[in-house]
Amino acid sequence: MIDKIDILGQEFDVQEFTDEHDIDSNLYGMCVYATNEIKIRKELKPKQKGMVFLHEILHAIDYLQELRLKEREIQQLAVALYPIIKSAEIFNDIGVDSIP
Asked: 71-86 vs 46-64: helix axis angle to the nearest 10?
């Protein structure tokens, strides 16, 4: 997993966490705006990690752009965008070899 990501010019640290950190066991991820951190539960399966990572990126975008999206809207966007992003072939089909 990457350790940093640039979101709208803000660098976010990306970390994994476990139950050992005394964090709610129902929590899969979180975006901590005060410290620019995205945290993902380590025990998740790869696809779940990808979905949670995208979900937390969307929270960061929502916060930085002051969109005021509801949690349900963030989740719906993550579910809709994940398969598109995951299938990089769509970018090849329009002549883009890699996303800058």
From this structure: 120
Instruction: Specify the CATH class of 4-87 in words.
Output: alpha beta
Q: Which of 42, 50, 3 is nearest to 20 (CA)?
A: 42
The two tokens of residue 68 are 């005021």
Which residue in this structure is represented by tokens 């979180």? 30
Domain boundaries along the sequence of the chain: 4-87
Q: What is the pLDDT of residues 29-88, one digit of tens each?
A: 999 999 999 999 999 998 899 999 999 999 999 999 999 999 999 999 999 999 988 887
pTM (two decimals)? 0.85
Beta strands in 2-97 (DSSP E): 4-7, 10-17, 29-32, 37-41
